[in-house]
Amino acid sequence: MTVRRGPRTYRGPVPLSRRDLLRASAAAALTAACSPASSDASGPRGSASPDTAAPSDSSTSASSGPPPSGAGSAAPAVGSRPAREVDHGPRTSPLVALTFHGNGDPALAMRLLRVLSDHQAQATVMAVGTWLRAEPRMAGRILDAGHDLGNHTLHHYPMRSLSAATAFSEIRGCARTLHRLTGSRGTWFRASGTQATTTTIRREAGRAGYDRCISYDVDGLDWQDPSTSTVERAVLGHSRAGSIISLHLGHQVTVDALPTILAGLHDKGLRPVTLTELLA
After folding, report:
1. Using one digit for the tens of pLDDT, what is the confidence trace for 17-74?
2. CB 212 within 8 A of CB 87
3. Given 3-state DSSP classes, what are the helix, strand and coil percentages for the chain, each rounded to the nearest 5?
4. How many angstroms separate the CA atoms of 232 and 247, rounded?
5. Residues with Cβ < 8 Å from 6, sequence gap 6 or more?
6. For an engineered disulfide with 166, which of 49, 91, 162, 193 has Cβ 3.0 to 4.6 Å away?
7. pTM for the full model?
8. In b/e form, how buried is each residue of 142-170, taking b as 16+ CB within 10 angstroms?
9. Taking the alpha carbons of 163, 220, 83, 140 in that order, is the dihedral positive or negative?
10. Collapsing DSSP states into helix, strand and coil, what is residue 224?
């Protein structure tokens, strides 16, 4: 539960002794020396991975108000164990996870959410931090619809080429954005620009408080903007119990293919659920 404190009454300055001033200065210096670099520091600006273009770093922040329904309250934390990579769920239950890389035109995202709602299907959006900063209302719309919202790094840099420090900054930067908008950093993290993670990515994800790096075993190919039938075949031809399916917001072909994908999964006896339900 997020606790919101009321305004404090100002009662004028309280004079400090010289000893108190020296102690305060020493504490401030120690804090500055131990604090990691800002999560918004500029990282490498290389070409974006093919699945999602790197967005501009908008400074738009969320408006004040209570966290959206379904959001937790855990602040971004620092862990000690490396995360482990997960590319599918249990093969013994007829569940699959539709996961969407969160970026792009919010109007297309809203159309896709409506298709999911019409079919009573649940999904997980792995959101790029700068997209959420530019479109802060999307966080609440995703969560209020009953979907999961996860971390897909701050700028969507190709993570395999990043230093450990920059990788951590990218993960933590998105975690802070999620926490500011929803009250939770989210349970799930997906590396940007790569399907498989490296030892460095998993270690830095663990440091940022995530215990799993979410990969996938079904690539919908929608990031290539092919024909609708190509996306449909890519998903339906490879999905099976426990599959984690990779798709994207911001692509018209994804919206167009989704009704057939959902109907086809139903015909195969597979039910789309959130990562939370698949990996419970």
Report:
1. 444 433 434 333 333 333 333 333 333 333 333 433 333 333 333 333 333 333 333 4
2. no
3. 40, 10, 50
4. 11
5. none
6. 162
7. 0.73
8. bbebebbbbbbbbbbbbbbebeeebbbbb
9. positive
10. helix
